[in-house]
Design brief:
By secondary structure, the protein is α+β, with helices and mostly antiparallel strands. The chain contains 19 helices and 17 strands.
């Protein structure tokens, strides 16, 4: 029996080693020879520019002795011997010089990173607003403008909440391994590509290259760990009777593709750093629930939740819509301008009519996005749209202490005014699927009727 166990253990080691050898990361350069169009679309995208070494080509901020002051601390951004530098408050609150090693992101803001001892990399909480001057950009600004943050605060840029290895690294580079040693409190963080490259979504490509060379038809998915081919793209068709879109090639692949994006585009806890595209997202990450600190009681975004949690609440997700139905997976741009992206599936004659939106044509109130994807600004300048695609419910807003799409535009009006207008237009109050909102609000407030309301929703 002991010999059998040793044999099985040895076989497992050999099998895992073989798989590892067959699925190595090779970088984006080998991809562009065969996938030139996709590679060109990816270049310059937010994925391509997710993280870069700090050079004169990558740094957007003003390092010409530019100064930024906040709560008695004046930081100076300058150059020294060709290196980008900042003089700012360090771990003991005194002003010190730090060298910028990396850039983080590109638009609408760019952040900067500094190497620290023990392999740690910290992200400055003073960022560069890369929007145009007309938009209020081209300036340094604080991510925590109203707070007086000292070095012993977790929000200080030298603290754990702005530690790149722990907080940010997993989503900005490809095949990243944090390699944290709890005994020595050190990191030896490694990546295969500094940015979000081809293999971040398609998986390690060495076996795929072997398939290209050998044309071995026995290799599954052409040697890739997940199938993301054009043949697997959703096919939609209008139902002439209802005027609504219907998915023609429904499959479980739709949800797996959304979970691939969720690896980074979600508020979640990371369980390990072993995720490979094609894996079950929940085997490696724990997505956050609709807790009151993250979401409003009706499920709309509140704190920074990164799309996935709101999208899962939508009828779109339930119908099989995926991220790539609306966004080009390589350039990341919308597949059409403005509301035209919605009109890929929703008949313009029905939904652009004033009988639907009751606003002047081409106004903000006539926009699908303004009404069904209201935006909220994070990190000072980054406006992001809610992806739960809700029916506007101003009648609920006051009850659950939440914003509504109507008064986000009509800021001089109250939710009651908007609710009355909607009821007058439609002869009723469209409820949508937010019937759980009063129950969640009651639970958050520990109301005596909370359990009764929750039971009613379950029924």
């Amino acid at each position: 029996m002991k010999l059998i166990k040793i044999f099985v253990y040895s076989l497992a080691i050999f099998f895992n080693s073989t798989l590892l050898m067959a699925s190595e990361y090779v970088g984006d350069q080998p991809c562009k020879d065969c996938h030139a169009k996709e590679h060109q679309l990816w270049q310059g995208s937010h994925h391509d520019l997710a993280m870069q070494e700090a050079t004169s080509q990558t740094v957007l901020g003003n390092f010409k002795q530019a100064k930024f002051s906040k709560k008695g601390v004046t930081s100076t951004f300058f150059m020294r011997n060709g290196q980008f530098m900042v003089n700012t408050d360090g771990t003991d609150n005194s002003l010190q010089d730090f060298e910028i090693s990396y850039t983080f992101g590109v638009y609408p803001l760019q952040q900067y990173m500094v190497k620290f001892p023990k392999g740690k990399i910290q992200v400055l909480d003073i960022a560069w607003d890369s929007r145009s001057k007309a938009e209020g950009g081209q300036r340094w600004f604080s991510l925590h403008p109203e707070e007086d943050i000292k070095a012993d605060d977790v929000l200080h840029w030298t603290g754990p909440n702005l530690n790149w290895n722990y907080m940010c690294a997993d989503c900005h580079s490809t095949n990243l391994k944090k390699n944290y040693d709890a005994v020595t409190d050190t990191y030896n963080t490694q990546w295969d590509s500094i940015n979000v490259s081809c293999e971040a979504c398609h998986g390690p490509a060495s076996k795929h290259i072997a398939w290209v060379e050998k044309k071995d038809t026995n290799i599954k998915n052409k040697g890739l760990t997940i199938k993301l081919s054009a043949a697997n793209i959703n096919q939609w068709q209008f139902n002439k009777e209802t005027g609504k879109p219907e998915l023609q090639n429904a499959s479980n692949a739709s949800h797996s593709k959304v979970e691939l994006c969720a690896k980074c585009h979600s508020r979640r806890a990371q369980l390990d750093d072993k995720f490979v595209p094609g894996n079950n997202f929940r085997d490696h990450y724990l997505p956050s629930l609709l807790t009151e600190n993250l979401y409003h009681a009706d499920g709309k975004i509140k704190d920074e939740v990164y799309v996935y949690g709101s999208f899962l609440q939508s009828k779109m997700y339930q119908a099989g819509v995926t991220c790539t139905d609306c966004h080009n997976p390589h350039s990341l741009e919308r597949k059409a301008q403005g509301d035209q992206v919605c009109q890929q599936c929703h008949l313009p004659t029905k939904y652009t009519s004033s009988k639907h939106h009751f606003h002047k044509p081409d106004s903000a109130g006539a926009s699908c996005i303004s009404c069904h994807m209201p935006a909220k600004t994070y990190m000072g300048v980054d406006e992001r749209n809610d992806h739960s695609f809700r029916v506007p419910r101003p009648d609920l807003a006051k009850q659950i202490d939440a914003p509504d799409a109507c008064t986000l535009c009509h800021q001089d009006k109250k939710s009651d005014w908007a609710a009355d207008a909607i009821k007058k237009w439609y002869g009723k109050t469209p409820e949508g699927y937010q019937k759980f909102a009063p129950a969640l609000q009651a639970l958050a407030e520990q109301d005596k009727d909370a359990l009764h309301l929750a039971y009613g929703v379950l029924l």
